[in-house]
Amino acid sequence: MPPVRYVDDALIVVDKPAGLLSVPGRSPEHADCLASRIQAAFPDARIVHRLDMATSGLLLMARGAEMERRLSIAFQKRQVDKEYLAVVAGRPQPERGEIRLPLMTDWPNRPRQKVDREAGKASFTEYALAAYHPADDTSRVKLIPHTGRSHQLRVHMQAIGHPILGDELYADPAHRMAAARLLLHATSLGLAHPRTGLRLSFESPAPF
């Protein structure tokens, strides 16, 4: 079972490994997922947000229908703070900025997403350079998504010319092969407890 960082009668915080689906896929071979593994120990656990299969890090689950409702509302109202760490190609300039590029599904190439300034949904990511490594011209970058579009961080970084290393969908071949996995990790999660209102904060160092 994936490491459980926190559990009480309202919620569970899990550290998802890369390569594991958050929820079951459509085909039988994709039945194994984080949700089913956690539900084996906590049958009332319910997914309220997801991480891409290739992304690792902190993921929140609710316990029971009422907590699922409350936490889903918190996500909808953007009351849950999330931060990610990525290793990207090049050095972003400026070193701190905002990416506001509307996104939508690239239907002929699903599950890929794409920037579409006319039909896309508003999408907003903050980024900040954490460290630059001139030897291989890569950067460690902190990413804060203010919206929750599919593949948002991956598409936004690629769109500004800094694809995430190991990204099989959006990186060019050289940067796709530069890492054995997608170098994207959900490092922090903060929210008000859905029962008590007390602030909860969780941290997970990137494993790369």
Written description of the protein model:
The protein is of the alpha+beta class. Helices cover 15% and strands 35% of the residues. The chain has 4 helices and 12 strands. A hairpin with a 7-residue loop joins strand 7 and strand 8. The chain is globular. The two termini are 21 Å apart. The mean pLDDT is 96.
What would a concise description of this structure say?
The chain has 208 residues and is α+β, with helices and mostly antiparallel strands.
Annotation keywords:
208 residues; alpha+beta; 4 helices
What letter string, H or E per element, gives the SSE order?
Answer: EEHEEHEEEEEEHHEE
Radius of gyration: 17 Å
Helical amount: 10-25%
What assembly state would you assign to the polypeptide chains in this entry?
single chain
Reconstruct the topology from this structure:
Elements: E1 4-7, E2 11-16, H1 34-41, E3 45-47, E4 56-63, H2 65-76, E5 81-89, E6 96-100, E7 103-105, E8 113-115, E9 124-133, E10 138-145, H3 152-159, H4 173-176, E11 184-192, E12 199-203
Parallel strand pairs: 4-11
Antiparallel strand pairs: 1-2, 2-4, 3-4, 5-10, 5-11, 6-9, 7-8, 9-10, 11-12
